[in-house]
Amino acid sequence: MNTFSTRTRRGAAILFSGVLVIAGLTLTGEATAGQDVAGNPTCSDLGYTHTYKVESPSAGTYTVDRDGMTAGLTVGTHADHTDPNPNNAIVGHDISTSAAGYAVVVKGGPGAIVYRSNSDGSLQAPPLHAPAVPSGKWPTISHFQLCWNEPAPPPGPGRIEVTKVVTGDGAPAGDDYEICLEGSAPSTDQQCTTITGRGTTTFENLQPGEYVVIETDPGPNYTVDGSGDTIVVESEATATATVTNTLNAPTEEFGRVEVTKVVTGEGAPADDPYEICLTGPTPATTTTCTTIVGADTATFEGLVPGTYEVTETDPGADYEVTIADATVEVTIGETTTATVTNEFVQQQSLPPTVPETPAVPETPTVPEAPTAATAPTEVASETSLPTTGSEGGIAVIATILVAAGIALMLLGRPRAPRELRRSSYQAISGRP
């Protein structure tokens, strides 16, 4: 009866052990306790790629450090099973590994016990031993094995290639667009990049995982598609994404520039005129210059997009001119501002003009001495003037009176013929 029972138990144990061997070869489930396995299972039988095996171990500690496995296994005799089987258990173990799973196989007698690591990498606490013999004792360890799988190399990096598409009438060809990634940390510190116009950019060295492609705000004139999409990156593979910007039809076709005139300085005139000009792409209006009186503003309307320069024609020596934002960018539907400041500067009075030294006149020319007059050859005889009341004076008076009488007679007489008058005239005057 006892013999039959013993044989029956052994047969059942062998059958059960065979089942466990098959299970051990086909299943990868975790075990928190040792499993009896009939025969002499190997690490490869159990599905492991790496083996550390010690035959007929003596009491002591055995170590291994290779292929991702570091361990120390101490063999000895357990206190509860000292007789008659020495070295019947692994009484201590210290295992540190990066392997995904491992096992310790203890062989003794007709079978072995397989101790598999738990999901957290821990192993059943010692003692680890072979299956007990019918007497209940643990047999001496014939050999033990440490089995593990070398960890797979980390997955290689992947990449994302982002294509930029810009559509819409009048869409500029040279605008900049910033594209960023959010998600699993890239292997590079650069998580954002800039695409100019239409084209592609590639984010390299990305850990496998999910990423979100994001375009930073391109402005109110665009509708953006593709920003916010989730992209899955696989090891050593290139994922693709597309971000499309569509230019909305603008409500205005032109822009404008508003120039503010500031006048500072003590005594600055309040109503001086200042000419402000705008130079750049041809504006829609022919007006490129305007006049601002005093401190005021002026607006240049109807400007096509582009770069413009604000200038002021010479306001005179009394002003120092400063222009803030002299170069301005005009965009559709937007107002760009600039400020022109004129500081009135008091002009310093000029020093008096020193008169030039007068020229010294030349020495005057001395006139030549006059020539002496020549004495007349004849001296006129002295003539005595008639004395008043003398005979000569009376005769003169008488002659005058006679002439006057004759004249009165002639005036009272009829006029003589022309020939007679002429002859009388000739007689009196002595002229022909």
Describe what you observe in this structure.
It is a single chain. By secondary structure, the chain is mostly beta strands. It has four domains: 2-148, no CATH class; 158-247, Immunoglobulin-like, CATH 2.60.40.1140; 255-344, Sandwich (Immunoglobulin-like), CATH 2.60.40.10; 397-429, no CATH class. It contains three helices and 24 strands. The chain has helices at residues 2-26, 391-412, 418-429, and strands at residues 35-38, 50-55, 60-66, 69-76, 89-97, 102-108, 111-116, 143-148, 158-167, 176-183, 192-196, 199-206, 209-215, 222-225, 229-233, 238-247, 255-264, 273-279, 289-293, 297-303, 306-312, 319-324, 327-330, 335-344. The longest helix is centred in the N-terminal third of the chain and has 25 residues, at 2-26. The chain is rod-shaped.
Task: Please provide a brief summary of the model.
The protein is mainly β and 432 residues long. It has helices at 2-26, 391-412, 418-429, and strands spanning 35-38, 50-55, 60-66, 69-76, 89-97, 102-108, 111-116, 143-148, 158-167, 176-183, 192-196, 199-206, 209-215, 222-225, 229-233, 238-247, 255-264, 273-279, 289-293, 297-303, 306-312, 319-324, 327-330, 335-344. Strands 1-7-6-8-2 form a five-stranded antiparallel beta sheet. The chain has a four-stranded mixed beta sheet with strand order 12-9-16-14, with no helix packed on it.
